[in-house]
Amino acid sequence: MKQVGYNPYVAAQTQFDHVANIIDLEPAVRQLLRQPSREVQFTIPVKMDDGTTKVFNGFRIQHNTARGPAKGGIRFHPQETADTVRALSMWMTWKCAVVDIPLGGGKGGVICDPHNLSKGEQERLCRGYVRQIADLIGPVTDVPAPDVMTNGQHMLWMLDEYETITRGHYPGAITGKPVGMGGSLGRTEATGYGVIYSLRESLMGLDIDITKTTASFQGFGNVAEYAARLYTQMGGKVIAISSWDQHDSKSYTFRNKNGLDIEKMVSIKDSFGTINKKKAQEIGCELLKGDEWIAQDVDILLPCALENQITVDSFTKISKTVKVICEGANGPTAPDCDILIKERNIFLVPDFLANAGGVTCSYFEQVQCNNNYFWTKEEVLEKLDSKMTSAFQAVFKLAREKKLYMREAAYIIAINRVADAVKLRGWV
Ligand code: NDP
Question: 53-64 and 105-111: which strand pairing?
Answer without folding.
Answer: antiparallel
